[in-house]
């Protein structure tokens, strides 16, 4: 030990310093070994225990203590390592906490700054307002003081000089009194100014009102003047027509008289010639070889025998008969079908001429033209007894089938009831007899289907009528022929008495309760109305019901007296036959639809939905959000569904499922499915051959559709629909419900029975309603609600209202929050600003289409498809159009 110390100490200057260093090293090592600090760990790292056994530290201790010391040191090292790790973790956490604190402090500071800015802005605004108010007050006070100074108070003669101890007098009054007088005067002047301002405003308002009334009166006077001018022109035209007719009649009479005179003169000349011929006639000379004529020989008349004259007469008669002979109708040889119970062979022969009394009724030389609309209206009102009473006012008058039928809506002033009158031409007795004759002949002919398909119904019927008129030599004027053709088309090709009503685009529903009651209609502008159309008896009504079922391609009978069907024009009809189900007799209800279905532009024009709502639904439909349109009866659910379906991309595959055909789409990849009623016996709870909406729904899932549209859910097909939603198919449908709660109760209750968990797949619910806006019936989308999730604890459905309708101002309000748009934004990796800009662009485009009257559903669909493909081109076109 000494040797090593000495060898080591050779490097130092003296041995004293060496001993000091050794003692210091030992003390430091012992101190580090008894401390739980990182310094101890570092000391142990540099301690001599890791060195050789002959180190200074091991020499001063025995072997046993040395071994024990080594074991304790290892444990301590492990503990030290653990402590170091903990310290490092603590430091890292401290750093993180400091960073978080810094961030939170920065955010708080920013929020405080924003709040401070808002407070400062509010204070500045308040100061500006207060300053303006104070300025106005000061100006008023200055004006009042100036006016008060301008008029000094009068001094009375009885006033004496003020004593020294009394109050100082100013113009005979004390200062306080003068101040009070000034204040009173100021208040009076202010009141007078206010009164003057109010009077001036009132006068201005009265003047404006007078101007408005004058303008209204001028408009009314102009309208009256125009009506009078029109009436005068009409009367002039009538007078001119009458004068022309009289002139034509006089000319015809003069021509007839001239012809008669010429004919009489010719007849007289002929008689004179015959007389001269008789006088000049001489018997023929007889030659020498000729003998006298025998008594039994044929007599000669003007060089011809009597038999030759008879033969000539017979030939002339046969020629006349051949000219007048009836032409047989052309019929195809390969057709042997029946018409009204007659075979084709029987119809080949000319039907016998019905009995017509020989009074010259089948010959009409001259006829008056068809009456104008005003005259027809007066005649119908006179027949109904309204002209005598005069207690009515006209609301609407427009043509239905011009110039034969018009629609007139009037209001009774006593009861304020509205009445719908069909103004229609009438036939004379002669015209009605000819109509019966032609109809009877037509009923005995067969129809050539090949000609019917090639020529069309109208042309084919017109040719048949012309053929009958020619064959039977029925002489008709042009106007009578038009009238008869109109009534025949109405009865044979149309719907009889219903035909004029079916031509009115403003009628939504036509209902017949029995033959004793007139038809009721539902008008788009005037609501429920009583019509002037009524059936004569139950037989006429029942025959019409049977005819309607045949037009729909279905069958109704006493065995099956109830029928739901779709008419050829797309209208929906429900019928009952006879008194088997309805005790009053046969009934029918026609629900009419537009030939051109509603588009988003129509919904914006009617204010059913706003442009922003439709832009939101456009994005939702395009990105596959599921939706249900709920509402009451006739609230426009199907029309809205048809309009929203135009937002479906054109290349998508669509399958529609309906009981009666109502949905109409411009998409080419579209499969329309319609349910079918069965026939025969009931097997397994279903009629044989019946295909209901449940069967169509199951079949639709096998057709790999991208979009499924169901007309209305109300049965077990709803479960399959929600299963399709859950499996990724985008579905849209309608349902009867007036709120979100009632919709959920209906879906969960009988007979739909959808579990609440499956309702999570539904994204959007649109609730529609019918209300009165400005005393007019209107359809509005009351709410658009998003279904977010189900609360796991309460099992309640969490919803978010995106839009709602304010009935007071008739406006739609956006809540500013949409989970569907957030989902679309996340899918497309867009910012909130980008998605809001896209929503605004689409709303702008829809509004522009409405202003430009782009409403036809095919045009709207093409514009939507073009925007999806090239949005920049469409928006530049829109901007260019606005710039003009």
Q: Which labels suit this protein?
A:
884 residues, alpha+beta, Beta-Lactamase, Rossmann fold, nine-stranded mixed β-sheet, 24 strands, extended, disordered N terminus
Structural class: alpha+beta
Portion of residues within helices: 40-55%
CATH architecture of the domain at 600-677 and 689-883: 3-Layer(aba) Sandwich
Dominant shape: extended
CATH class placement of the domain at 600-677 and 689-883: Alpha Beta
**CATH homologous superfamily annotation of the domain at 600-677 and 689-883:** P-loop containing nucleotide triphosphate hydrolases
Here the CATH topology of the domain at 600-677 and 689-883 equals Rossmann fold
Question: Can you offer a commentary on this structure?
Answer:
- This protein is α+β, with helices and mostly antiparallel strands.
- Among the domains are: 505-592, Beta-Lactamase; 600-677 and 689-883, P-loop containing nucleotide triphosphate hydrolases (Rossmann fold, 3-Layer(aba) Sandwich), CATH 3.40.50.300.
- The chain has 26 helices and 24 strands.
- The strands form 5 sheets. The chain has a 9-stranded mixed β-sheet. Strands 16-15-19-20-14-21-22-23-24 form a 9-stranded mixed β-sheet, sandwiched between helices. A two-stranded antiparallel ribbon has the order 1-2.
- Helix 12 crosses helix 13.
- It is extended, with a radius of gyration of 53 Å.
- 20% of the residues are buried.
- The model is unreliable at 1-14, 35-70, 159-172, 282-305 and 320-368 (pLDDT under 50).
């Amino acid at each position: 030990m000494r040797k090593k110390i000495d060898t080591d100490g050779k490097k130092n200057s003296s041995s004293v310093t060496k001993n000091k260093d050794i003692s210091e090293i030992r003390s430091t090592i012992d101190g580090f070994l008894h401390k739980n600090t990182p310094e101890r760990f570092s000391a142990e790292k540099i301690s001599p225990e890791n060195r050789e056994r002959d180190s200074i530290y091991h020499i001063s201790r025995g072997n046993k203590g040395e071994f024990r010391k080594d074991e304790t040191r290892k444990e301590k090292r492990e503990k030290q390592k653990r402590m170091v790790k903990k310290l490092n973790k603590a430091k890292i956490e401290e750093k993180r906490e400091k960073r978080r604190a810094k961030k939170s402090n920065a955010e708080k500071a920013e929020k405080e700054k924003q709040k401070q800015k808002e407070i400062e802005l509010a204070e500045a605004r308040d100061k500006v307002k207060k300053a303006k108010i104070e300025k106005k007050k000061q100006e008023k006070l200055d004006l009042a003081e100036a006016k008060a100074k301008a008029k000094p108070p009068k001094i009375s003669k009885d006033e004496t000089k003020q004593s020294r101890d009394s109050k100082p007098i100013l113009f005979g009054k004390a200062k306080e009194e003068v101040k009070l007088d000034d204040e009173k005067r100021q208040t009076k002047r202010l009141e007078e100014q206010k009164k003057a301002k109010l009077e001036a405003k009132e006068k201005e308002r009265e003047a404006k009102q007078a101007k408005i009334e004058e303008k209204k009166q001028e408009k009314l006077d102009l309208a009256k003047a125009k009506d009078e001018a029109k009436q005068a022109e009409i009367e002039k035209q009538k007078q001119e027509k009458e004068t022309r007719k009289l002139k034509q009649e006089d000319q015809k009479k003069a021509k007839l008289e001239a012809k008669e005179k010429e004919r009489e003169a010719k007849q007289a000349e002929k008689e004179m010639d015959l007389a001269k011929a008789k006088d000049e006639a001489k018997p023929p000379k007889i030659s020498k070889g000729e003998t006298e004529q025998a008594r039994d020989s044929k007599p000669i008349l003007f060089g011809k025998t009597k038999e030759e004259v008879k033969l000539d007469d017979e030939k002339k008669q046969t020629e006349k008969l051949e000219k007048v002979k009836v032409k047989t109708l052309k019929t195809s040889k390969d057709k042997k079908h029946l018409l009204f119970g007659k075979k084709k062979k029987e119809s080949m022969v000319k039907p016998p001429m019905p009995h017509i009394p020989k009074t010259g009724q089948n010959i009409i030389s001259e006829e008056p033209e068809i009456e104008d609309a005003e005259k027809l209206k007066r005649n119908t009102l006179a027949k109904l007894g309204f002209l005598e009473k005069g207690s009515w006012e006209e609301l609407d008058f427009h043509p239905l089938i011009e110039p034969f039928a018009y629609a007139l809506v009037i209001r009774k002033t006593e009861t304020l009831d509205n009445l719908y009158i069909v103004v229609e031409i009438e036939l004379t007795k002669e015209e009605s007899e000819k109509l019966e004759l032609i109809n009877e002949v037509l009923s005995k002919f067969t129809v050539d289907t090949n000609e019917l398909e090639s020529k069309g119904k109208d042309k084919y019927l017109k040719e048949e009528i012309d053929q009958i008129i020619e064959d039977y030599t029925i002489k008709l004027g042009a106007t009578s022929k038009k009238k008869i053709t109109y009534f025949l088309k109405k009865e044979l090709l149309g719907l009889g008495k219903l035909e004029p009503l079916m031509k009115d685009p403003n009628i939504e529903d036509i209902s017949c309760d029995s033959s004793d009651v007139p038809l009721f209609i539902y008008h788009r502008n005037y609501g429920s109305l009583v019509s002037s159309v009524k059936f004569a008896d139950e037989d006429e009504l029942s025959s019409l019901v049977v005819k309607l079922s045949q037009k729909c391609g279905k069958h109704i009978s006493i065995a099956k007296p109830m029928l739901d069907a779709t008419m050829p024009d797309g209208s929906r009809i429900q019928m009952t036959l006879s008194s088997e189900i309805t005790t009053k007799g046969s009934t029918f209800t026609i629900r009419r639809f537009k030939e051109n279905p509603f588009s988003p532009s129509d919904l914006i024009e009617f204010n059913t939905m706003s442009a922003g709502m439709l832009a939101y639904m456009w994005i939702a439909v395009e990105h596959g959000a599921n939706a249900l349109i709920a509402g009451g009866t006739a609230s426009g659910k199907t029309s809205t569904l048809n309009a929203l379906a135009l937002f479906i991309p054109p290349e998508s595959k669509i399958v529609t499922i309906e009981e009666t055909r109502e949905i109409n789409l411009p998409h080419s990849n579209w499969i329309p499915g319609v349910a079918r009623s069965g026939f025969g016996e009931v097997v397994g709870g279903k009629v044989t051959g019946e295909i209901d909406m449940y069967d169509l729904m199951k079949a639709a899932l096998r057709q790999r559709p991208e979009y499924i549209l169901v007309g209305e859910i109300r049965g077990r097909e709803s479960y399959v629909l929600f299963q399709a939603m859950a499996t990724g198919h985008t579905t849209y449908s309608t349902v009867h419900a007036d709120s979100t709660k009632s919709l959920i109760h209906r879906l969960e209750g009988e007979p739909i029975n959808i579990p609440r968990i499956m309702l999570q797949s539904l994204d959007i619910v649109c609730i529609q309603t019918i209300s009165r806006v400005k005393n007019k019936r209107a359809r509005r989308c009351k709410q658009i609600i998003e279904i977010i999730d189900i609360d796991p604890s309460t099992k309640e459905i969490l919803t978010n209202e995106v839009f709602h309708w304010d009935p007071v101002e008739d406006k739609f309000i956006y809540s500013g929050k949409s989970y569907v748009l957030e989902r679309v934004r996340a899918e497309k990796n867009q910012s909130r600003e980008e998605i809001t800009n896209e929503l605004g662009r689409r709303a702008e485009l829809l509004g522009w289409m409405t202003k430009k009257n782009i409403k036809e559903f095919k045009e709207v669909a093409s514009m939507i498809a073009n925007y999806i493909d090239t949005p920049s081109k469409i928006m530049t076109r829109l901007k260019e159009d606005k710039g003009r």
